Every structure is written in C-alpha cells, then in structure tokens.
Amino acid sequence: MLGTQGARYAGTRAANLTRSPEAAAEALERRHLEAAERMVETLGRMKGAAMKIGQLASFIDTEFLPPEYRDLYQEQLASLRTSAPPMPWRKVEKVLREEWDEPVSELFEDFDEEAAAAASIGQVHRAVLCDGRRVAVKIQYPGVADAIAADMQNAGMLMRMAKALAPGLDAKAAAGELKERVMEELDYEIEAQKQRSFARGYSDHPFIFVPDVVTRLSTTRVLVTEWVDGVGFDEVVALSQEQRDAFGEIVYRFCFGSIYHLQHFNADAHPGNYLLMPDGRVAFLDFGMTKHLDAEQIDLEIAALAAVFDDDPERLRVALHDLGFLRDPRKVEAEQLMRHVRAIGGWYMEDREVTIDSARVMDAISAVSDPRSDFYRLVRRENLPANELMGRRMETGVLAVLAQLTATRNWHRIGREWWFGEPPATELGEQERAYFEARGERRRGHA
User: How do residues 214-259 score in pLDDT, each as one tens digit?
Assistant: First the structure.
C-alpha cells in the first residue's frame, strides 16, 4: 500500500509543476487524504499488532507523519481506535457457539448483531441480559491470537534493533516482558481478573468508573462487562478548555495514581479506552495490558523523583542505578543525566502550571530516540529494565493524550499527593483524598 501511494504521490508532485500554487496545494492534500484513507483500510484489515501501530499514530505526534498533514492523517487514523472494519456476524456467532454451551438466544434478551466498536484484537457488541442488565460483549477475532503469537516470535528482532541504540539494554528480559504482557492481552479470562481488581479499587469513586465484569459469561475469547453510556474522545476534544483540563486531570490521576493507590496500572493508555459519562465521571475500559509493581520498586522510583526535585544529580544517578537504568553509573555524567530526565519527564517535574502540547510529546520522544538529540550518546549507555517497559509505555501514552487535549495543570503538585502525601492540589484531589481515606488508605509520608 505504501509503495503504491508513494508512486502516486510522486506523480502528483510532478504534475504540480504545471499547476497554479492553489491547484497544486489542493491536489497534494487530496493525495495525502487518499493515502490516509488507504492506510486506515489496510491496517484495519490486518488487525493485531499492525493496527495497534495505527492507533498509536492517531494520537502520538511522530515524525512518521508529515507535519503539515499530521492533523489530516490523525483524523483518519482515529477511526482505528473504535471503528475498524468489523467481522461479519456469522464469524461472531461461531466464536460464541464455541465459547458458550448455551445459544445466544437463551443467554440474552437481546443481542445486537452489528458491532458497536471494533479494535485491534476484538470487537464489541451491545446486548441485554435476561435480567435486564445492559452489557458489552467483547469477542476476539478468530485467528488473531495465533497471528499475534507469530508476531511475538519477531520480538527478539525488535529488541536487537533497540539494543543497537542502547547497548546496555537487557534485550532478552525486555522481549520476555513484552511477550508476556501481549500474550496476557489475548486471554480475556486474565483481563477479566484484572478488570475486577480495578473495579473493586475504584468502586463508587467520585470521578473514575470501571465497569463490572459478568464473570459467568466471560471466557478466554469472550469478555462480558457492564455497558457504559458516554461520549468518546473525539467529542471530548471539542469541549471547552476547562472541561478538557478536567478530563486530562482525571486521566492523569487514574493512569499514574493507580500505581500508588493499587500498585497496579493500565499500560494501554490510549483515548479509545476512555468515555466521558453524563454525570462527569470518566469510564476506563480495556484492561488487557496492565502491570503490577511491588512496593520496593515504587519507593525507588519516588527516591529518583525526590533527587530531581532536590536538584541532586549524584543522588539521581545512584537512584537510577538502583532501579536498573544504569549498569555502570561511573560512565554516566550526573549533570547530563539530570538534564536528560528533565527532558523526558519535565512536564510533571516542574512546579508550575504546564500546558501539554505536541511539542512536549516530540521533545520527550526525541530525548530517547533521536540521533540528533544532545542525549543520544547518553541513551546508548542506558538500560531499560524489563519491569519498567510498560511504565514507560503508559507515560508516553498519557503525555500524548494530554497533548491532544492541550490540558493544563500543575501536574507536579498533583503527583506530590501520591509521592509524599501532601495536601490535595485541586478540587478533584480533595474528592479523591476523602474517598481513599474513607477506605482506610494511609497517605505516604504520614505513618
């Protein structure tokens, strides 16, 4: 597809030599629109890992997309988050027959044969149980598990490429972590366990909602959960800036705060998983890729943050060595390391209101992957511990989501609520503090 579109693009550029500037610009935009539409169509048919790349490109600003046409491409790619080409009902019904002993007509009062949403691994159908409860039925595409398992056989190749950039990377451990998380995502029974854990952790929360799981109908390839009414991310982006700021804060509090409240976080931070409910709460969906952290790792991460806040480069170098990011700290200059860490996470390390935009996303990404970056030589001496892989994925995803919202907050002050048990920084923080204190949670720094 890219080869065909590339040839057509070249033809358009050649033809533009004889056109007026206005006609040339219009022809070029038409060509990019066609390329974007074909990209969506192709990735949507491929499903699996290929489609996930398209989903990420729909909200993470990268140099892969032409800057002047990035909005056009992202607008088209956004459909991959919820509206990929669905599989026909006959294939859906076949999966359901294989997974359930009873026919659909006996288990449900109503079952919509048209998919309500379709994503990279499965699609969702609306249904009504015999007791009247409205539910979402997520059904895995036939054969997708085998296809992704085959993709994972290439994880070693991907890690060898990463190791060329960062020779200290423990490629085997990182490949193992990636494979374990992805294969877990293919087992909906595991996802059901994780979702139940988050639903308990946020039960009756003032602004976070996680739908309950219908356990008796959930299997390896079918997940049945409570249906949620709400508007999707594309509509949220069209709201007022004040509303977008509040939505962004809720996403930040859920994605990062879960680490400190539950020792568990959702690594798949992309906007197709969020719904703004009529009562103002945000529903979080899809718990296929999550990660547990032990208390020791969380404490080490907070120690590294404290070193940054205290402007102590040497202490930061020791803390990152303890976390496994530096194999030989003597080979890394402490002051440069401090600048590098601030380039990546400055948005929540600066004690001021920060508006997240696409420039912030690009700066954070280039600090770890751009050969032209001042930090490139440093990155080649760093390590990415396997148990930090999912955390970095989540952090990048949240940053990109906030950039789509151009959300503004003092993210640092919100974080200090979790890191050091400091007073709430916002009205939502006050609500959340009251919620967790009522559940008996003890604040960090207040024994």
Answer: 999 999 999 999 999 999 999 999 999 999 999 999 999 999 999 9
Q: Is residue 68 within 8 Å of residue 368, measured between CB atoms?
A: no
Among residues 268, 279, 286, 294, which one is catalytic?
Answer: 268
Q: Which long-range contacts (CB under 8 A, 24 or more apart) does 332-339 make?
A: 332/378, 332/381, 332/382, 333/378, 336/375, 336/378, 337/313, 337/378, 338/308, 338/311, 338/313, 339/374, 339/375
Among 231, 227, 254, 256, smallest CA distance to 243 is for 231
Q: Mind listing the domains of the chain with CATH numbers?
A: 2-81 (no CATH), 89-142+187-290 (1.10.510.10), 293-409 (no CATH)
pLDDT of residue 49: 56
DSSP string, 115-152: EEEE-SSEEEEEEEETTS-EEEEEEEPTTHHHHHHHHH
pTM for this model (two decimals): 0.79
**Known catalytic residue: 294?**
no
Tokens of 298: 């969380």
